[in-house]
Every structure is written in C-alpha cells, then in structure tokens.
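Entry details:
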Amino acid sequence: MSLKKLWTAMRGAANEGVEAIADSQAIRILDQEMRDAKKELQSCDESLTSIMAKRKLAENKVNSVQADIENYTNHAIAASEKGDEALALECAERVAELEATLETEQGILNSFLASEQSLKSNIAKAKANVRRMEQQIEQIKATESVQKAQVAVSSRHMGANSKVKTALGSLDRIKEKQKQRSAELEAAEELAAEDSGSSLDAKLKAAGISGQPKAAGSDKLAQILAAKKG
C-alpha cells in the first residue's frame, strides 16, 4: 500500500472515530444546546421587559405633552376671546414649543414600539423553534430508548435461542444414552435367563409344552417303599 493510500485510510479511520464519539454524545450535546438557547431566551425576555417599560414611559410622556398642548391651545383661545392678545400669543408660543417636544417624544416612542414589536416577533419564533427542537429531542430520546430495548431483547433472544438449542442437544444426548442403557439392561436380563434355563422353560410354556411330567401318587409311594427295602 502506498503512503498516500495509507494516509487516506488513517484519515478515514480517524474521521469515523470522531463521528462515533460525536454520535454517542449527540443527545447530551443537544440537551446542552437547549439549555443555552433557553438561557439566551431568558435574556431576551429581560431585554423585552426593559424595552416595554421604556415604551410605557415614552407613551406617558407623549400623552402628557399632548394634554399640555391641548390645555395651552384652549388657554390661547380663551385669552384671545378676552382680548388679551399678549397672553394668547404667549400660550401659542408655548403650544409651538410643546409640539416640537411632542415630535421628539413621538419619535422616541415609535422607536421603542418598533423595537418591541421586532423583539416580540423574534422571541416568539425562537421559542417556537426551541419547542420544536425539544419535541424532536424527546422523540430522539424515546426512539433511542426503544431501540436499546429492542437490541437488548434481540440479543437476549438470540442468546436464549442458542441456549435452548444447546439444552435440546443435551436432552437428545441424554435420551440416546437412556435408550442405550435400557437396551443393555434388556440384553443382560436375556443372558441371565438363558444361563438359568428359565428362558427355555418360558419358551416351552409359551409353546404349550410342559416340562418333566409330574409323578402320580402311587408311583411315588412305590419308589419310597422300594428305597426302604433296599
């Protein structure tokens, strides 16, 4: 093998090793990423709360300036109607100042409103993505658990089948040994019967042929008396 091919093979093996480690830690990494994402979202919520508070203050400021404008406008009209043009002019100048202030404050309010709406939209999207990711992670965890259980059951089943086959093989051997032993015992009994002659008697009896005929009583008595005389 050339050095180039050897180096390529080593790189491939190294990459496979890295991928295997990454896969084994995938769920843990996803959990950590979810925790980081939730922490960032918490910071976003805090920023949104701050912007909403500032927007509320800006709204109050705009409402206050608008009320002052309306108030001094009414004063200018009232002073003019009474013929006090100097006071009416002074009130009108105050209204002009307040309108300039209102324009500035309204711009600030609009900026806060835009930021608030944009941040709300982005946070809502981020939270939706986090929820979807959490669901996927839970599904991955459940699938991983089920597959591990299936692997364990499959392994046990294969092991059990192997054990059962081994046990059945042992039972067959035991049965064969028992048959052999029974045959040996039967053969031994046959040999013993032949040695004692009982086997032949049994065969004669089975054929309906009796053994030595029994002596009648008178014959036996004659034998006894003859033996006594002798």
Remarks:
- Residues 71 and 101 are 15 Å apart (CA to CA).
